[in-house]
Amino acid sequence: MLFSQFEQQIKSYYPRQKSFLIGFSGGLDSTALLLLLAKLREKSPDLQLRAIHIHHGLSANADAWVGHCQQICQQLQIPFLLEKVQVNNERGIEAGARDARYHAIRQHLQPDEVLVTAHHQQDQTETFLLALKRGSGVSGLSAMQICSELFGLPIFRPLLRFTRQALLDYVQQQNVAWIEDESNEDNRYERNFLRNDVLPILRERWYHFDNAVQRSAQHCFEQQQLLKELLQETFYTHFDQSTQTFHLNQFTQYSDLKQKALLRLWLEKLAVPIPSTLQLNQLIKDVVYARQDSAPQFQLGETVLRRYQNTLYLTPAFLDLRQVKINVPLHRLITLPDNLGTLLITEKEQTQHQQLEAIWDRQGGAIHWTLPFTEQPIQVRFHYSGKVRLSATSAKEEMKKIWQQFHVPVWERQRTPLIFFGEKLQAALGYFNVVNE
User: Fold this and answer.
1) Which residues form the Lysidine-tRNA(Ile) synthetase C-terminal domain (predicted)?
2) Known binding residues
3) How far apart are CA 21 and CA 169, in angstroms?
């Protein structure tokens, strides 16, 4: 019975999908998933399965779990992948382990594969209640969906409507052992506290509690989808797909509710964790309504939301490079700081006059820039506040004004290699050369 329902789930959601990567911890749930997919492969021999096990290094038994999972996969003739990760617990062990896990899986997922996880009905209840505890809106209370995307990964949860008891019965019928993680008894973890202490009482009082939560989560999901549909036309008048930025034209004329809804859609589009209501209110106050001549920013986890002129940008948290000075010998590749790529300055060939060529190779392509020849020491810096002249007939202007003329956002001004000949600024790569007297 369970297998036939599982097979129907596959046919309903992925009728033509032939490649799945299975998240396999070795616990009861993922063991049931592995067995069900292996049985499905017996009926569809062209089905390609791989299993990935993430070694978090958080348990003394982690190495033994690897051996168990490897053995089960070998018996089922399913290729086994092992990935060891380091867990950053700044936001808590649970969040750190999840982030590390999905980051590792993303490195292995092939373009034609879909990640399959073993989340079931009781997991859905826990996720809903944790979102409720955080004060989430309809997006958070939508909990998990059978098909979704997380961390840029397509995720399929075919067991989401199945109870844990049904999975337990199935694995016991197959006479296959599974791992019991001792940390599941540790109620310091919020999910374990719900699972071990809170939910048994609720289920004893209300037998269909999990079904009711699942319906509520589905209602929230449908409301969220309707909201997106109603806002879609307006959203795309602000969202620039080519730059992934958000324009603020006419934005302040909307109601507070509409402003927050549109910003949530933008952040969701960029796969950024949605901020709390308090954060969102502060963001709108400090960034959207900041003075026009300011360069406001707001920290969102590992990213920074910034405004330049009338547009919002989302960037990494950059290092301050204003004091950095790097000597650049000719014909030697230099690695620039903070993931800015590499720089090579060489003599330009086949020119009537001696010239130099700077090749700045950064993510997204290389910039080739012509410089006059010099015998002075060449240096790269990332900050200059004096006056410069861009042509023999123009007056000197403050560097700030020059950046504004080229519409360069404030943070990019400190990430653009500035070429100095001796102590004189010669060029801002990709933007302009300077005329020196």
Assistant:
1) 378-434
2) 25-30
3) 24
Annotated binding site for ATP: 25-30
Q: Quick one: residue 330, left, alpha or beta (phi over 0 = left, psi -120 to 50 = alpha)?
A: beta
What digits encode the pLDDT tens for the residues 375-432? Answer: 899 999 999 988 888 887 888 899 999 999 999 999 999 999 999 999 999 999 999 9
Distance of CA 435 to the CA centre of its chain: 43
Q: Coil, strand or helix: which one is 161?
A: coil
Q: Which amino acid is it at 219?
A: H
Whether residue 93 sits in one domain with residue 16: yes
Q: What is the DSSP letter of 217?
A: H
CB atoms within 10 A of CB 7: 16
SS3 sequence of 240-266: ECCCCEEECCCHHHCCHHHHHHHHHHH
d(CA 288, CA 297): 10
How many distinct structural domains can be found in the chain?
3
Considering the domain boundaries, does residue 221 fall inside one?
no
365 and 387 co-located in one domain: yes
In this structure, is residue 81 part of a structural domain? yes
Tell me the CATH number at 306: 1.20.59.20
On whether both 19 and 96 belong to a single domain, the answer is: yes
pTM above 0.85, yes or no: no
Work out the angle between the directed axes of helices 164-174 and 28-43 (0-180°, nearest 10).
Answer: 60
Going through 92-181 in order, the beta strands assigned E by DSSP cover: 114-116, 147-150, 153-156
